[in-house]
# Entry
Amino acid sequence: MLTEEAAIGAANYLRGELESERQDLDVLRRYATGKQALPLVVPRDAPAEVRELARVSRINLIAIVINSLVQSLYVDNIRVSDSAGPAPSQPADPNSPALDPDAAIAPVWDTWQRNRLDRGQAGLYRSVFTYGHGYNVITPGDPTPVVRAVSPRRMFAAYDDDEPDFPVMALEWRKGRGNFYRLYAEDNSGDIGVYTLGYDQEKKRFALLKVAPLGMIDYVPVVRYVPYDDLDCDDEPERQYPQGSALNSTVAVLTAGEVAPLMTLQDQTDVSSFALKSAEWYSAFRQRYVKGWTPENRAMKMKAAASQLWTFEEHPDDIALGEFSETTLDGFLRSREAVLKYAATLSETPVHELIGELVNLSAEALAAAEAGRDRKVELAKTSLGESHEQSAQVIGDLMGADVPPDIEVVWRDTSARAFGALVDGLGKVSQMLGVPPQALWDRIPGTTRQDVERWKKMAAEGDSLGQLTALLGQQAAGAGGAPSPNPDGTTTSPGGVILPRGARTA
# Structure
């Protein structure tokens, strides 16, 4: 294993990278949660009501975009081809028994369920779309490996261009019983170990606490998830932001994920909303004025404010009455709506989800309105599905189980297509193309792996009853025939029932 000095040196390097990257990711986190800085158009010495108007003017359109994507991704099942066998590089053994697909995938699905990934997968996808990537950390456990989704704000992984599937080493910040870190690294001999280190905030140094070798695998068990591949994501130029900017430092240009491209549109929406609220507060109503007269006390001022008809007993010719017209808010509303529509186009989010307009759309029209988002989700499914399959291979290696190479995840269909039309299409596929109905069960929207397994069991039981009924029918049909003798002295009736010696049929 690594020496204590080598482990601490690696942890120091990775922690520096983690802290540097976290500064950028914290900006994305604030925008994703609606806690971005107030618009800079608000003066620092502005009255309290102005600053409060700016605070409530932050309309978080980015959260709508992220939620729309996360809610479209849900893994219902993990399956493998019925003809699954050895890898193409391995010769097939004709004497080996046929591989049962369900038995081959059972260890992976059991691990999925025991780690409650039906619930945990949503947090992983949210991290992926917010920051551009996320991680699954898979470690040995009893009775199954432990799978944890980790945010990139808590982990930094270093990769080699020649081996992009798994990192060379990774550091995870844990906040369990105390403030400590876990280093996943490979030593010079190729052995993988998990190093637990404590960190002293005052002395700014690590201390090695525990070492746990991972003898079952020869790679770092960290799987990276990305929504799509970007070959230049690790080679971004740096930009100097203006002094006083929300970023307020020289940071890498933020491009990955869904938050970074929408940050400027989010700022525009905040400024438009602030201008709208300011107009509503100060000038959205008619205001009356009097020239040449001042109320003597607060009571007279309140009486004048509530009066519909004003009269003055002294010097009426020296007093002038007038009013200011209210400010029209239509321009502010149209400006904000235009920004939201542009954000919908840029993010490929259905417009009706951002501006809230949905009037009597048919299922076909709704599907057309969401076509762009569906294409984006399909692209993400391809990339995230490969990462899930990579995680399944790690689970199999830790459990000593042979996971077939053609494993794939089954995503839930969350599109806007009508359920009846989809089921009708599946029925036509079965009837016209000869596809077995059981092969289409997992394509029914909302169907889980447990549903498919229960249906298969019910179908098998139904077939058993059918076979028994057919056998009894055959026996009844052949009851009038003559029995056939057997070499051992028994006889077989025409219905197929073996009769003992001396038995007779009526």
